[in-house]
Amino acid sequence: MVYKRFRANCIIRILLLGATICGFFFFLFQTTLYAALFILGIFIIYQIYTLIRYVEKTNRDLTRFLQSIKYSDFSQTFKDDGLGSSFEALKSAFNEVMNAFRKTRTEKEEHYRYLQTVVQHIGIGLIAFQPSGEVELINTAAKRLLKVPHLKNIKSLESWSKPLVSTLFKLKSKEKALVKVEDNNELLHLALYAAEYKLRGQNFSLVSIQNIHSELEEREIEAWQKLIRVLTHEIMNSITPIASLASTINELIKESYNIRSSGENINPESLTDI
User: Fold this and answer.
1) What is the mean pLDDT of residues 64-81?
2) Is the pTM higher than 0.70?
């Protein structure tokens, strides 16, 4: 509908320009009214100028609209310059599209900030890097675990732990690894889990890092406790017959002592048993 009104407006302007040109040539060949010829000539030039301006204005607005979309500049607005209802409808459509893009970008930025907040507050260390080692993302937990305020390339960690850097480069998607790191007499057991993804045509590796040293210590303590319970059970099984024999000996000794106290002789077999 917009283009139909635009086409009708152009046709009217062209017809008016054609009629003016016909009138100019009529006065040129049929009369000697040079003042009228001059006025018609100026009017023809004005009509040509307004027609070109009318058409090019739409092209300029359309070019500005497309460039705004291309460069994601949604701050542009399109105002009605009194060029007709067709331009008013077209610019209104431009503004509606720009508002829709602005709303979409705002929602996208909100989702990005929300994701960043979640990533930074998660307790497990996360680090995303390119095959060259350039770090794209590292959260607070990873910085605290690796003891770095910032990290541009994972190769910078070689001074802290070369096995860790080597393992990070070798890990493939869905692979796990365990790396031991000694830092100032402190032993760290770092559990790594890798995933791969593609963003903006580039490959990235996302690795989660978690220190499981305390969990390993707990499991080691649990294993020792189980071993102690087993050993205690076995020792008690061995002590039971010893305690029974000792009790029997004690009874024999008491019995022999009582016999001796009464002046009787102790049975040699009892002494042999004792």
Assistant:
1) 70
2) no
Question: Is 197 in contact with 129 (CB distance < 8 Å)?
Answer: no
**Mind listing the pLDDT tens digit for each residue in 226-248?**
888 888 878 888 888 888 888 88
Longest dimension (CA), the chain: 179
Nearest to 226 by CA among 240, 234, 212, 237: 234
In whole angstroms, what is the distance from residue 13 CA to residue 179 CA? 80
For 18-48, write each residue's pLDDT tens digit: 888 888 777 777 777 777 778 888 888 888 8
CB atoms within 10 A of CB 209: 22
Using DSSP's 3-state secondary structure scheme, residue 122 falls into coil
Tokens 């497309």 label which residue? Answer: 66
Q: List the structure tokens of 96.
A: 């509606």
Q: Quickly list H helices, the chain.
A: 2-30, 34-70, 85-121, 140-146, 162-170, 213-261, 268-273
Cα torsion for 233, 237, 238, 239, to the nearest 10°?
90
Question: How many Å apart are CA 178 and CA 168, to the nearest integer?
Answer: 11
Alpha-carbon gap, residue 130 to 18, rounded angstroms: 66
Q: What is the pLDDT of residue 1?
A: 47
Residue entry with tokens 């000996």: 249
